[in-house]
Structure formats: C-alpha cells, structure tokens
Amino acid sequence: xxxxxxxxxxxxxxxxxxxxxxxxxxxxxxxxxxxxxxxxxxxxxxxxxxxxxxxxxxxxxxxxxxxxxxxxxxxxxxxxxxxxxxxxxxxxxxxxxxxxxxxxxxxxxxxxxxxxxxxxxxxxxxxxxxxxxxxxxxxxxxxxxxxxxxxxxxxxxxxxxxxxxxxxxxxxxxxxxxxxxxxxxxxxxxxxxxxxxxxxxxxxxxxxxxxxxxxxxxxxxxxxxxxxxxxxxxxxxxxxxxxxxxxxxxxxxxxxxxxxxxxxxxxxxxxxxxxxxxxxxxxxxxxxxxxxxxxxxxxxxxxxxxxxxxxxxxxxxxxxxxxxxxxxxxxxxxxxxxxxxxxxxxxxxxxxxxxxxxxxxxxxxxxxxxxxxxxxxxxxxxxxxxxxxxxxxxxxxxxxx
Length: 401
What we know:
The chain is mainly alpha-helical. The protein is built from 17 helices and no strands.
C-alpha cells in the first residue's frame, strides 16, 4: 500500500515536471512576450489553487482513492492535449485544463500517505526523484524532437507532452491497486477559517518564500539559456535540484523539530535566490541547485509534518498549503515576467531573496500576525515545535483522556 502510493507520487511528479519544464520556452516560441509567458505559467497555477482547495476538502468527506484514480486519468488526457496549444491563447486554455485535472489528485495523494501512517519525508523524496528524472526525460525528449522540427517546429515540446501523458497513465494504473483506507471523515465549513488561522505560521512564510521562488521559475529556462545552457543542460540542472531533494528528504524523518526544519529551509532559500543573481555561467548554477534542493526539502517536509500532525482535517490543511503555494505560483509568475521585462534577471533574483527573508521573519510565534485567541491556539503552536512522533503521541493521549 505504502509502496504503491510512493510509486504514484514518483510517476505523477515526473509527469507533471516533464510537462512543465519547457512551457516558458514554448510560450515564447508561439509568440508570447515576457509578460505573456508569466500569464501562461500563472494560469496553470491559478487552476491548481482552486482545484487543490476544493478536492482537498472533498477527500476529507468522501475518501482519497476515488479522487486519486479520476485525477490521474484526467491528468494523462489533458497533458497530451497540450499539443493543441499552438497560440498564446490556446496554450493558456490547455494549461488551465491541465491544472484543474492535476489538482484533483495531488492533495488526496499526500493525505492518503498521512492516513496510512507512512513516512512523509521518504514519500516526498519519491516526488523529488520523479522531478529529477523528469528533468532528464524532458531534456532528452525535447532534444529528440528537434530531429523532427521539419515536420513542425513545436515537435520538441510535443514529445515532452507525450512522455508526460504516458507517465500519468502508468500512475493511474498503479492507483487502481490502492485500497480505500478506513479513515474518519471530516465535514468542516466550506471556507476553513479555523484551519487557516491555526496554521498561519506555516502558510504565510511558505507563501512568501514560494512567491519569490516562482518569480524565478517562471523565467528560469530562459535565464539558463541566456547563460549558454542547451535544452539538455536545462534538464540536467533540474535533475541536480531534484536529485538533491531526493537524497535530503530521506534523511529528514529522523529529525525532531519540524518547525525548525521549515525555518531553515526558508532562510537558505533566500541565500539560494541571491546566488542566482551573481553567477555568470550555467555550470556555476550546479552548486546553487544543490543548495536549492536542500532548502526546499527542509521547508517542504517540515511544513507537511506540522500540518498532517496538528490537524484532523488533513485534506483541508494540506489543501490550503498547496493552494497557498499555487497562489504564489500565480502571483510569482506575473511578478517574475514583469520584473524581468523591466528590470532584468539580477533585480528579480534580489527581490526574490528579500521575499524569502520576510517569510522567515514571519515564521516565529508572535511575529507580525496577531489576533486574540484562546488557549487552544497557543497549544497548537507549542505542539508544532515538537517532533512528529511526539505530536502523534500527544494526540493519542488527548483522545484517551
């Protein structure tokens, strides 16, 4: 059961990243300027904001498995359908449809792993491994497609969409083997205000960090091209980042302080973003990609452990987390395209580093965001600083009492 869920995570992450890797390049080739590239990238993220939020809560009510199966199948279909994106407008539409369908399965998959009692660090590592291989897969598929540009100049991108669709379909087949877990369903309000406030020290810092990150990712392939990287090298540099995540995430389950992990991840992200602005050759990006892998791993595993252990509404809590990150994708993509258009890559990297520093400063209890609450909120903050195993034990003890 745990292995099947991890395989789904691996295949779907590989498929999603393979589909995304060259979207900025494709958007540019079909006639989009820097601002329009940002809009195309952000359209997918905006669809994910809504889809993650809706289907995360839906999985709390009606179970995880059905959304996994349906979502992965539809993702396979809409990934291939992106070959229809031959203009700025049609590419935007296909990316929106793809975002809606991938958002159906993402939160239920993470929640399924949490419900099963599996290790979230190792599970997340499989996702990073998928991203790592996707970088090579997308780079190789695009390189192969360049042999057939005589048939259509967009063939390199179509090959990446085909590879993505196949991986999603394989994940769909694996998901059919997952049993429905006998989990307790939760039926909270449509807008989970208490969940939002209870986890504000996670959502706001992660949002700020990811806002800066996505501003960079929106133009990252174009930035690497400006440094002299080929499509294959762009794929290799994505592999370095995700491969580093795969190694680091497997080690994080043994550490006890999830909140400290998250905070270090956000702070090191600021260092990473600043470093992007001072390199002058694509080979010099390699060590920066390793640092990026470390920083993201710390933030991602730390935040997921806090949310899955401090909330009975796992789907809602993780859904808001993913929606916050995708909202950052929307705004960050627009910000990245606009700043690059008017200020250049250096200004963008420094502004992203500043956003990460701001997020880090808001991750501490008592910093920035205030509201009078009862003692329940204070207890939640205190629990968030303990180990994952310790949180589970505290919850078991409270239920026993």
